[in-house]
Write a structure and sequence with these properties.
The protein is α+β, with helices and mostly antiparallel strands. It contains seven helices and four strands. The chain has one domain: Alpha-Beta Plaits. Bound molecules: inosine-5'-diphosphate and magnesium ion (MG).
Amino acid sequence: MCSGCRPAPGRRRTVPESRPVQRRPLLDWRAVAVQRTLVLVKPDGVQRALIGEVIMRFERRGLHLVGLKLIRVERAVAERHYAEHAAKPFFAGLVDFITAAPVVAMVWEGPDAVAMVRTMMGATNPAAAAPGTIRGDHAVSIGTNVVHGSDSPERAAEELALFFEPAELVDWESSSARWLE
Ligand code: IDP
Ligand code: MG
């Protein structure tokens, strides 16, 4: 047996009282921009008790939650939020729908979060949404497709400002962050 493997008889192995805490990420890989994006669990998702299901997916993926609230969307906010669709035949119905019952508004942060959330949501039309996505697993109609997610970093910035006051967004550090980087 080697001399260093076992303490000498009558002597205890000593353990250092403290070790330096490693604060830097395990891998120093930061090629992708960290973004924030707006997610809504739409009225159909809230009514169908899918709030937890939607949150769980983003949380387990490793995205970082910085804002969360249950709200009734005011008509003026809905019209601004969906302004790009104002000329479309479904616009009035869309505004009626999003204001008909509460929504859960959230802000998720992470590398490439805008695209990541869109990929996890699935296609707008549930018939085209891949199984495994939120819409692909939980929706059958384009009008009631459970979630909204910003479609670009520019829209994300506008939508965050439309739905959240700066003071409602919480800067905090997740203890698991260094295991995700
Ligand atoms: P997105 O939610 O995937 O970003 P958008 O094209 O921005 O899709 O449309 C916004 C929302 O309007 C959709 O999520 C859907 O609920 C609704 N919508 C889009 N196209 C139609 C349509 O052709 N008929 C009815 N509702 C539609
Ligand atoms: Mg959209």
